[in-house]
């Protein structure tokens, strides 16, 4: 009597395909560089998905910079903006910046003429 041989599944081929797909997505995916090397963004959920245009970067020690140039205060930053850009001002604070200092800078921006101050943060994962 003849023994029945079971057909073997081509698992090696399937593993190769999955591995090639993994390599493809690793190569095809790109990460955007951070605004500054020492900046860690604040985590939030349900953030408006608009990308931040030119924004005022506030470092953990309270130093401010705009397009890589240091800004001594909020009024100086506002004076560099065109009249149309002063209606909606975006700021990118460091995660370790004290909240009281962030609020004070926001108030300074409002006093200097900003109608709306938007804080740009990192989207929370879940």
UniProtKB/TrEMBL annotation:
Q: Which GO terms describe its cellular component?
A: plasma membrane
Q: What does the UniProt entry say about where the protein is found?
A: Cell membrane
- Sequence intervals crossing the membrane: 12-31
> Which GO biological-process labels does this protein carry?
protein transport
Q: How does it sit in the membrane?
A: Single-pass membrane protein; Single-pass type II membrane protein
**Main location per the UniProt record:** membrane
Q: What is this protein called?
A: Biopolymer transport protein ExbD
């Amino acid at each position: 009597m003849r023994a029945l041989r079971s057909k073997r599944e081509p698992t090696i081929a399937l593993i190769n395909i999955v591995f090639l797909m993994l390599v493809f997505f690793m190569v095809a995916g790109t990460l955007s560089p951070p605004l500054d090397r020492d900046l860690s963004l604040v985590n939030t959920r349900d953030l408006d998905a608009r990308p931040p245009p030119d924004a005022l970067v506030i470092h953990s020690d309270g130093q401010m910079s705009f397009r890589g140039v240091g800004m001594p205060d909020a009024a100086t930053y506002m004076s560099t903006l065109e009249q149309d850009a002063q209606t909606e001002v975006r700021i990118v604070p460091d995660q370790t910046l004290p909240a009281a200092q962030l609020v004070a800078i926001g108030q300074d921006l409002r006093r200097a003429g900003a109608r709306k101050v938007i804080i740009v943060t990192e989207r929370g994962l879940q």
